[in-house]
């Protein structure tokens, strides 16, 4: 929330602080929300173990007191999971992170033993770390697959008669899906970073992404990596596609259904429509933790509605004193709607870039690529 003007690392040591950080967007992005939720369960397990041990120590040691302590522990963790799930309803990674760590805890408790609760806390820590490492690894892998697509675009463009030596691959992206939004690398920006590092000439059109101006985060990441980029107003994308200044669109996603419908930051659907009308390929980049295998129809994805103030006000640094200011940009009496996400139907998606390769946006293609994920 301090970027792009300052980089702040926030220490989080309790479940409540983690829930606040997720809900109020101290951290954001599907992957990072999932990792944060996983560690949120771990933090909750520490507090739950303390509470369970305290209740157990107040009664004589016996099988019944141990059972009571475990029951207290489980109840606290179930409540913590529910609390985390309520913070942001759209990104499925959050649910996956909670379920992964909660599952690891349950397996240890079911195995039993005199130190089951202590072992469960350690298992939670290890599973949260594993989940986070997977996120980084998968994002790096999908970046390599996406890089191959960008390289092929560059080879075709370089070989065209109109090439004048100054061309590059022009990518348009929406919202922020770089390493700030994941454990590392990112989704939509991972192919860009990989292509740039490989020497492929590349330029990124960065949607400002109202109302949170998340394009500023993308611009900050690209600038930090040295990638040429230009920030544009959200509504400029269609024009740029129509006049031939966009070679490919790559966005991230907060939830993709088993059928390939992709939910992402509000405004993505309009970019996909413009891309379809102008024959510009439209890719969605995502680790498989973003796929919701329980939903096929994108209309069933819950769409988060956030507070009106995010639309009514903007924040930035004042040129006069360099301090952060919040400014009202609408009439004070006007109401404002703030839907956080929209769904791009699979028919508009050229392909899904995942850690296992690029897939068509369909049930059949995703099932073939991830047969182990389908129950």
Descriptive keywords:
375 residues, alpha/beta, four-stranded mixed beta sheet, 13 strands
Summarize the structure in words.
With 375 residues, the protein is α/β, with parallel strands linked by helices. 45% of the residues lie in helices and 14% in strands. It has eleven helices and 13 strands. It has helices at 15-23, 30-57, 63-85, 92-111, 116-158, 189-197, 215-225, 237-242, 268-277, 309-312, 363-369, and strands at 169-173, 202-207, 229-232, 248-251, 255-257, 262-265, 282-285, 291-292, 313-317, 324-328, 341-344, 351-354, 357-359. It has a seven-stranded mixed β-sheet, sandwiched between helices. Helix 4 packs antiparallel against helix 5 (116-158). The longest helix is centred in the middle third of the chain and has 43 residues, at 116-158. The radius of gyration is 23 Å and the shape is globular. The two termini are 38 Å apart.
Short description:
With 375 residues, this protein is of the alpha/beta class. It is built from 11 helices and 13 strands.
Q: Please state the average pLDDT score.
A: 91
Distance between the termini: 38 Å
Q: Determine the strand fraction and express it as a percent band.
A: 5-15%
Q: What is the count of β-strands? A: 13
Q: What is the string of SSEs from the N terminus onward?
A: HHHHHEHEHEHEEEHEEHEEEEEH
Q: Helical content, roughly? A: 40-55%
Which structural class matches the secondary elements? alpha/beta
- Cα shape: globular
Give the SSE map.
Elements: H1 15-23, H2 30-57, H3 63-85, H4 92-111, H5 116-158, E1 169-173, H6 189-197, E2 202-207, H7 215-225, E3 229-232, H8 237-242, E4 248-251, E5 255-257, E6 262-265, H9 268-277, E7 282-285, E8 291-292, H10 309-312, E9 313-317, E10 324-328, E11 341-344, E12 351-354, E13 357-359, H11 363-369
Parallel strand pairs: 1-2, 1-4, 2-3, 4-7, 5-8, 7-12
Antiparallel strand pairs: 5-6, 6-11, 9-10, 12-13
Helix pairs in contact: 1-2, 2-3, 2-4, 2-5, 3-4, 4-5, 5-6
């Amino acid at each position: 929330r301090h970027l792009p003007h300052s980089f702040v690392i926030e220490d989080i040591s309790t479940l409540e602080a983690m829930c606040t950080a997720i809900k109020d967007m101290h951290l954001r992005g599907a992957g990072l929300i999932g990792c944060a939720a996983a560690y949120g369960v771990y933090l909750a397990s520490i507090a739950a173990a303390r509470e369970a041990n305290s209740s157990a120590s107040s009664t004589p040691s016996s099988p019944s007191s141990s059972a009571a302590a475990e029951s207290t522990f489980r109840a606290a963790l179930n409540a913590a999971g529910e609390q985390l799930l309520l913070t942001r309803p759209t990104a499925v990674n959050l649910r996956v992170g909670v379920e992964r760590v909660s599952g690891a805890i349950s397996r240890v408790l079911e195995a039993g033993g005199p130190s089951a609760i202590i072992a469960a806390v350690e298992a939670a820590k290890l599973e949260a770390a594993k989940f986070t490492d997977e996120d980084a690894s998968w994002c790096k892998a999908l970046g390599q697959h996406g890089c191959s697509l960008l390289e092929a675009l560059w080879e075709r463009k370089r070989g065209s008669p109109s090439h004048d030596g100054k061309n590059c691959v022009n990518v348009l992206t929406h919202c922020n899906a770089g390493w700030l939004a994941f454990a590392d690398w990112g989704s939509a920006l991972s192919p860009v970073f990989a292509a740039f590092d490989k020497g492929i000439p590349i330029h990124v059109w960065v949607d400002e992404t109202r109302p949170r101006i998340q394009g500023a985060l993308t611009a900050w990441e690209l600038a930090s990596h040295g990638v040429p980029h230009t920030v544009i107003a959200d509504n400029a994308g269609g024009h740029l596609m129509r006049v031939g200044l966009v070679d490919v669109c790559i966005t991230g996603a907060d939830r993709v259904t088993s059928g390939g419908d992709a939910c992402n930051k509000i405004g993505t659907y309009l970019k996909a429509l413009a891309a379809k009308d102008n024959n510009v390929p439209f890719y969605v980049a995502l680790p498989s933790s973003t796929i919701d295998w329980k939903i096929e129809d994108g209309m069933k994805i819950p769409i988060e509605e956030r507070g009106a103030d995010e639309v009514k006000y903007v924040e930035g640094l004042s040129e006069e004193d360099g301090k952060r200011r919040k400014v009202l940009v609408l009439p004070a009496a006007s109401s404002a709607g703030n839907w956080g996400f929209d769904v791009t139907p699979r028919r508009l998606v050229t392909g899904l870039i995942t850690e296992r390769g690029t897939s068509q946006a369909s049930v059949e293609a995703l099932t073939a690529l991830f047969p182990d994920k389908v129950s």
